[in-house]
Amino acid sequence: MDSMGAVGAGAAIALENLFPPLPSEVILPLAGFAASQGRFSIVEVLLWTTAGSVVGALALYAIGALLGRDRTVAIAARLPLLKASDIDRTEAWFRRHGTKAVFFGRMIPVFRSMVSVPAGVERMRLPIFLALTTAGSLIWNAVFILVGHALGTRWHQVTDLVGLYSKGVLAAAALAVLAFVVLRMRRSGKGEHRSAR
Which of 3, 42, 86, 132 could form a cystine bridge with 102, CB 3.0-4.6 A? Predict the structure, then answer.
């Protein structure tokens, strides 16, 4: 941000979409703090970071589109405990709730990047994807930039609070995966038991 200004903040956010370990929860409040120091305007950094969000999301959408349904099913077939029917259920869910998932997904750590891939696989109409991604990203970015601007030199305090939110989201995701694995193993075990009879 020191060398590239608001453009640098936008580039960092684009990379964050592709590499989630670079957290927007750190980049955005820092950008807000930099704006409070007069290095660039809030409007400028908000426009560039939102553009970065859209560019990163488009790259992941393209990966999903290139992957396509057939390759996704083939990959699922090779993974333990996954079935083609899981892909069918996921597709059905995304057809019903895809627009909400893309919009609100922009406000959930880690998933804000991942949601672009199934949107690409399902070939969600690009204008709708762009509109939802821009709107969701604009809200997420604005909150953190404005808080960082208001906190000034204490901008890092927001990362502590959001860290708890991120950990809660990851813990919920880990529990959901664990529950899926346990249920799937139990079902496969019952199936083997019946076939042995």
Answer: 132
Q: In the chain, what is the straight-line distance between the N-terminal and C-terminal CA atoms, in Å?
A: 67
pLDDT at residue 193, rounded to an integer: 45
**Helices (H) then strands (E): counts for the chain:** 8, 0
Which pTM was predicted?
A: 0.74
Q: What is the DSSP string of 9-71?
A: HHHHHHHHHH-TTS-HHHHHHHHHHHHHTTSS-HHHHHHHHHHHHHHHHHHHHHHHHHHHHHH
Query: Would you state the structure tokens that stand for residue 31, as one six-digit string?
Result: 């950008």
Is there a contact between 54 and 130 (Cβ–Cβ < 8 Å)? Answer: yes
Dihedral Cα 144, 147, 153, 154, nearest 10 deg: -90
More confident: 61 or 94: 61
What is the C-alpha separation between 98 and 86, in angstroms, rounded? Answer: 16
57-72 burial code (b ≥16 CB/10 A, e <16):
bbebbeebbebeeeeb
Distance separating alpha carbons of residues 31 and 183, to the nearest angstrom: 44
Q: What pLDDT does residue 79 have?
A: 64
